[in-house]
Amino acid sequence: MQLGFIGFGEAAFSISCGLKEQGIGAIVAYDPMWDHPTYGAQVQGRAETAQVELMKTPEEVLQRANVLIVAVPADKALGVSETLKPHLKAGDLYIDVSAASPKVKKAIWETIEETGAALVDAAMVGALLVDKHKVPILASGSGTDRFIELMYPFGMNITKVSEIPGDASAIKLIRSIFMKGFAALGIELLEAAHHFNVEELVISGIGDSLDGKSFEWSLNRMVTGTAIHAQRRIVELEGSIEMLQESDLNSVMSEAVKEKLKRVASHNLKEKFQGVIPGSWLEVIEAMKH
User: Fold this and answer.
1) Residue 175 is part of a domain; what is its CATH number?
2) What is the CATH number of the domain that holds 82?
3) Which residues, other chains included, contact 163 with Cβ-Cβ below 8 Å and sequence gap of 6+?
4) Beta strands across the sheet bearing 158-162
5) What is the C-alpha to C-alpha distance for residues 189 and 243, in angstroms, rounded to an integer?
């Protein structure tokens, strides 16, 4: 195996450092910013630190590497696959770790399939800077089994999702709805709590409600309860929004939640469930389809 990277930013650097610690052999890489007047020194410094040989063109990487980790921004991923296609050969392993959508990952596979290379849609779902090469990776696509076989000896933490490119990225992006949304809600909550000088009481009060319970249990309780009480919660949230606006605080997240609750209420779930809180979140989601 000869490992190469296309894109040598934070992700490629962190993975390379971890793999080098595990005794992997030579690594080559290309980054379009390698000679940039502002950022070139950072790219070159990372390569030196990670003991990675920096190439001046992507073609040079593909002349050397048969296992390719493509770590580029999501909006560049498809274009990069088109650029690399003429230089791919049968047996190459093309591992895309970008945060591109499932649709883009499928398009990448359609682009490179005829070369005989295998694709891995790899979604990193952990703390990359902390875990480095051991960051949890969800993987799908035709090359997943080989990816696991090659990288398991070096301690990479890869879980196979399926043979279908896009499936792994779908999980990552669905998780992001919560992870990014939770952070944004937290900022709005903390801005308000700090404004009113009640942050300790707010944080501890929410903690009392959630601490010691599993995420699945809490999620189920909140979703099933909302199915019955959506309209009441809209009214309560309107009070929160009014308070934020009167205090000249941003209420964009609360307003978005209100709109989502209005959509839930429009399905008349309280009537469908005859006023009884359903036992599972799945019952709520299924009821909202009709």
Assistant:
1) 1.10.1040
2) 3.40.50.720
3) 140, 141, 142, 144
4) 53-54, 27-30, 3-6, 67-70, 93-96, 118-124, 137-140, 158-162
5) 12
Per the structure, how many domains does the chain have? 2
Closest by Cα among 7, 28, 146, 170 to 83: 7
Q: Which of 163, 187, 215 is the last residue of a domain?
A: 163
Provide the 10 A C-beta neighbour count for residue 119: 27
Strand positions, DSSP E, the chain: 3-6, 27-30, 53-54, 67-70, 93-96, 118-124, 137-140, 158-162
Closest CA to 13 of 36, 39, 94, 193: 39
Per-residue pLDDT of the chain (290 residues; tens, 9 = 90+): 999 999 999 999 999 999 999 999 999 999 999 999 999 999 999 999 999 999 999 999 999 999 999 999 999 999 999 999 999 999 999 999 999 999 999 999 999 999 999 999 999 998 888 899 999 999 999 999 999 999 999 999 999 999 999 999 999 999 999 999 999 999 999 999 999 999 999 999 999 999 999 999 999 999 999 999 999 999 999 999 999 999 999 999 999 999 999 999 999 999 999 999 999 999 999 999 97
Q: Contact 137/112 with Cβ under 8 angstroms?
A: no
Same-domain pairing of 75 and 98: yes
Determine the Cα–Cα distance for residues 185 and 130; give it in Å rounded to an integer.
Answer: 25
Per the confidence metrics, is the pTM higher than 0.85? yes
Residue 164 burial (C-beta neighbours within 10 Å; 0-12, 13-18, 19+)? middle
How many Å apart are CA 283 and CA 286, to the nearest integer?
Answer: 5
Structural domain including 73 reads 3-163
Q: What are residue 4's DSSP bridge partners?
A: 28, 68
**Whether the Cβ atoms of residue 4 and residue 65 lie closer than 8 Å to each other:** yes
Residues 22 and 103 in one domain: yes
